[in-house]
Amino acid sequence: MNDINHEVLIIGGGIIGASISYFLSKAGYDVGLIESKEIASLTSSHCDGNILAIDKTPGFDSQMTLRSQKLIHELSKELILPFEYRKPGSILVCETEKEMQAAEQWVQQQRDYGLDFKMLDKQDIKNES
Fold first, then answer.
1. Across the strands, what pairs with 10?
2. 21: closest CA among 63, 66, 79, 61?
3. Cβ proximity of 102 and 96 under 8 Å
């Protein structure tokens, strides 16, 4: 067994453990990371590779999504090795006028928090395809 000491020891090398290790190391801490298999080979390797905002409540949750999207963009320039990230967007379809009114309010709340949401009508959807 190695007799190595670290200021911080992270157990688990998925996206969370690797992120914590990276940012603590960047802040000057001596960090060790323990992973039973390969880094990001378990749960993180099965992730679909995007950060959705459509399923987040306006406010704190959507702000964390926005910050995460910006952070991924920054990391893609900073890290040496490439990683998979997609930004496909999402569409929420309204079937009733009541749903449409609720969606308009929800979209406006997301916009107020800085997210790039927009309403599409039938013609917009046809033009998107």
1. 33
2. 79
3. no
**Cα torsion 102, 89, 41, 2: sign:** negative
Distance CA 54, CA 92 (A): 8
Task: Identify the sign of the CA torsion 56, 68, 27, 14.
Answer: positive
Q: How far is CA 106 from CA 60, 71, 90, 117, in A?
A: 14, 24, 14, 10
pLDDT of the chain, 129 residues: tens digit per residue:
566 789 999 999 888 898 899 999 999 999 999 998 888 777 766 776 678 888 888 899 989 988 988 888 898 899 898 877 777 778 888 899 999 999 999 999 999 988 888 888 878 878 876
Tell me which residue has tokens 């999504």. 65
Alpha carbons 13 and 50: distance in angstroms, whole number: 19
E strands, the chain, in order:
8-11, 31-34
d(CA 99, CA 104): 9
